[in-house]
Amino acid sequence: MICRFCGDNLKSVNQKLFSSLGERCNGNPSGKHIGVTDCVCCVYCGDEARPQNGRLITKLGLQCKNSPTGGHCLQ
């Protein structure tokens, strides 16, 4: 997965997205990396998400710490 703002390759660690330069994204005014959708992983935390009862869930649950809405998002 790559960041849509800075273009760096991302990896997910404890529901946070990191690039080779760290957690902070210099291209995004909020300072967080946001992944480009691959329709499998949440763009905010990078964990694989699947639908459950009309919501997206990952191995860590329904809540996404990095999402502005609190839920996982694939787009």
* Mean pLDDT figure: 92
Can you tell me the overall shape?
A: elongated
Q: Which parts are unreliable, with pLDDT below 50 for 5 consecutive residues or more?
A: none
Largest sheet: 2 strands, antiparallel
Q: What is the ordering of alpha helices and beta strands?
A: EEEE
Helical content (DSSP H or I, runs of 4+):
under 10%
Tell me the radius of gyration. 12 Å
Major β-sheet strand ordering:
1-2
Nutshell version of this structure?
This protein has strands at residues 11-13, 16-18, 50-52, 55-57. The chain has 75 residues and is mainly beta.
Task: Quickly list its features.
75 residues, two-stranded antiparallel ribbon, 0% helix, elongated
Write the layout of secondary structure elements.
Elements: E1 11-13, E2 16-18, E3 50-52, E4 55-57
How would you characterize this protein structure?
Helix content is 0%, strand content 16%. By secondary structure, it is an all-beta fold. The chain has a two-stranded antiparallel sheet. It is elongated.
